[in-house]
Amino acid sequence: MTPQAVQIDKFGKVAVLMGGTSAEREVSLSSGQACLQALLAKGVEAIPFDPSTRPLHELVDLKVDRALIMLHGRGGEDGTIQGALEYLGLPYTGCGVLGSAIAMDKIHTKQIWQSVGISTAKYRIVTQSTFDAGSCSAIMDELGGIVMVKPAREGSSIGMAKVNCAKTLATAVSTAFRYDSLVLLEQYIVGKEYTVGIIKDRVLPSIRMSTPHTFYDYAAKYEDSTTQYFCPSGLSDEEEKQLRSLCLDAFNALSASGWGRIDAMRDEQGRFYLLELNTIPGMTATSLIPKAAKVDGVAFEDLVCEIVATSFAPGVRV
Q1: Which positions are annotated as binding Mg(2+) 1 (predicted)?
Q2: Is 278 annotated as a binding residue?
Q3: How far apart are CA 297 and CA 248, in angstroms?
Q4: Which element (helix H / strand E) includes 241?
Q5: What is the C-alpha to C-alpha distance for residues 30 and 252, in angstroms, rounded to an integer?
Q6: Annotated binding-site residue? 263
Q7: What end-to-end distance do the CA atoms of the chain give, in Å?
Q8: What is the pLDDT of residue 1?
Q9: What is the reported pTM?
């Protein structure tokens, strides 16, 4: 039986947490509204709740039974809200405190994956207090001449840039420092980009993205109709199996649970490199998890119910 068939009648009152104070607030509001409407359509008692405008303890006053977290970015995806909900004794969807905190930090994610033998692109770490623009030429050479600049703890490609010379690297790093005092400089992998969704132990079909943008940036994700999505992704059965298995191993290595989405690149020699784990992926009209679930035969409303069902995680989460 499907999770929704088993547990919808046990959901009780669901608060859809959306909005928040991160740089991804607008995407969070869109995701939250889409999920709220899906739950209402399935007959679930659900209410919107923006923790940036209401104190969290109101969830107890409202007699909420569980929380569907649709807060993207800091404060919602980094273990903060998860810890607060645990303190309040409220079940919630997705990863626990530890898995959320690790996955939100792209640097720690890469370090853990490296430690267990999972391939990820070569990288350097720079800090705002010690960064020397004079080192940019050496960094470009070390990382192969094309570099992705990423704030260590942001999502939705916010603050990211792709650069191919020392001068633009210095500028991009300065821009990234507006969002985070830690910045990841990552070797650019020439090849195709994929993403793989995971719900509990079920791995969804991979999606391949193609965009005329320099890379799959914020506009390509949320604003530009020219971005193309391919699901099935064009991989052979064996390659698809390899990628799904790799992503599930990577998901578990970060102490993740519930659901999430892993982004990967495949180079021109056919090798996969994992980029990051999103523990609360977007659930908007253009989001990737719903696209993969649809190919897997799961409608959006049922997908949302599956995500709510992850709040029934047994025992203590990590």
Answers
A1: 263, 276
A2: yes
A3: 20
A4: helix 237-253
A5: 28
A6: yes
A7: 27
A8: 39
A9: 0.89
